Amino acid sequence: MDDRDMKKLILAGKLVEATLEGDQVTRLLIGNLVSFLMKNGTVSYEDYFQFTQQTKKYLIETSEDTSESKVKMIESIFDLHLDDLKEIKAIEPKKNE
């Protein structure tokens, strides 16, 4: 492996790291927004959770690209969001407390 190949690998590693950090930031911002909307009564947790599950199913069923990688991408993105929602629900105080 020459110097140029090593530099390309380092750059690729940095790009992957930046992408992953960007994804985490996006997840935090979306989670924060959903939490805020639930606290203010704008969004019902149960309705939003069900809607998100239905959207995931709809996107998988209607995607023109039915490759395994596309389906797994949709599933992964929505599963991460659903897991984030479960965490939000677990830490949110009950309205009647």
Produce the secondary structure layout.
Layout: H1 3-39, H2 45-62, H3 68-91
Q: What's the pLDDT, averaged over the residues?
A: 85
- Sheet-strand content, in percent, reads under 5%
Largest sheet: none
Strand count:
0
Question: For the terminal residues, how far apart are their CA atoms?
Answer: 63 Å
Rg, Cα atoms, Å: 18 Å
What is the N-to-C order of secondary-structure elements (H for helix, E for strand)?
HHH
What is the global morphology? Answer: flat
Instruction: Name the structural class.
Output: mainly alpha
Secondary structure: helix percent: over 70%
Which ranges are low-confidence, i.e. pLDDT below 50, for 5 or more consecutive residues? none
The tally of helices reads: 3
Describe the protein.
Helix content is 81%, strand content 0%. The protein contains three helices and no strands. The chain is flat, with a radius of gyration of 18 Å. The protein has 97 residues and is mostly helical. Helix 1 (3-39) crosses helix 3 (68-91) and helix 2 (45-62) packs antiparallel against helix 3 (68-91).
Question: Any descriptors?
Answer:
97 residues, mainly alpha, 3 helices, 81% helix, flat
What is the gist of this entry?
By secondary structure, the chain is mainly alpha-helical. The chain has helices spanning 3-39, 45-62, 68-91. The protein is built from three helices and no strands.
